[in-house]
Amino acid sequence: MLQLVNLNDRVRHLMLDELAMDMRSGTLYVSPRLSNTGQQNYAVLLHEAIRSHDDEWLADQLRQLRRLRPTESRRKAKGGYTTARVPVNAADIIAEGEFNRFYARGLCRLAGEEGIRDLIIYRAKPTAHPREESTRLEGARINAQKLLKDLRANPGIETQLHVPAGHGSALSVRLPVRRSTRGVQREAGRSRITAAVSPPPLGTTDQRSLANS
Q1: Residue 129 carries which DSSP code?
Q2: How many other CB atoms are there within 10 angstroms of residue 197's CB atom?
Q3: Which of 1, 32, 80, 133 is the most buried (most CB within 10 A)?
Q4: Cβ contacts of residue 86 below 8 Å, gap of 6+?
């Protein structure tokens, strides 16, 4: 189960608002690994998971009542297609990925409401073999409104900002930690991400950018 550190009632409300937006516009991503029954049930199950549960509950529901297809078509390296069994963890992949995306969208909305420009990227679940590119993103800051726009524009596919960073990465976002030192508020986080990597300021190290304006 993903450890989404800022998941609360307000974030859930904003997640549901984002889900309703996708349903009205017809852009809600529905995995092709779901059967006809799964596809018909998916929006209701996702709504209930966001309202009262979590990604683990959603995965359990997708495993029931033949909501997953047993097989899928895959492209062969030398051309053409072959039929292969759907991975045993397909329900977890779908549930984690989509719940995490709506969580990130809800948190971006909350950040906007509270005047917080950047969120912090972190790993919400231990991964046995994390990809090098996702490891480099851990601890970096990312502009919340650019991330929100990216997630809305790229349902079901990897985003331009690579957060979340593909199936199984478990990268998510959290609010910056603020602590008071002699009345000064400081945000925790090692680096900032922008759409184009910029050189670090003089006298600093490990400053990255990927969504800063």
Answers
A1: S
A2: 10
A3: 1
A4: 33, 68, 69, 70, 71, 72
Helix, strand and coil percent figures for the chain, each rounded to 5: 40, 20, 45
Which helix (H) or strand (E) segment is 179 a member of? strand 178-181
Helices (H), 88-131: 90-113
0.70 exceeded by pTM = yes
Yes or no: say if 161 and 147 are a contact pair by the CB < 8 Å rule. Answer: yes
Q: For residues 95 and 49, is the Cβ–Cβ distance under 8 A?
A: yes
Interatomic CA distance for residues 13 and 9, integer angstroms: 6
pLDDT in tens, 81-94: 999 999 999 999 99
Q: CA 97, CA 112: separation in Å to the nearest integer?
A: 23
Query: What does the alpha-carbon distance between residue 59 and residue 89 come to, in Å, rounded to a whole number?
Result: 9
- 131: tokens are 């990809």
Structure tokens at 18: 């984002």
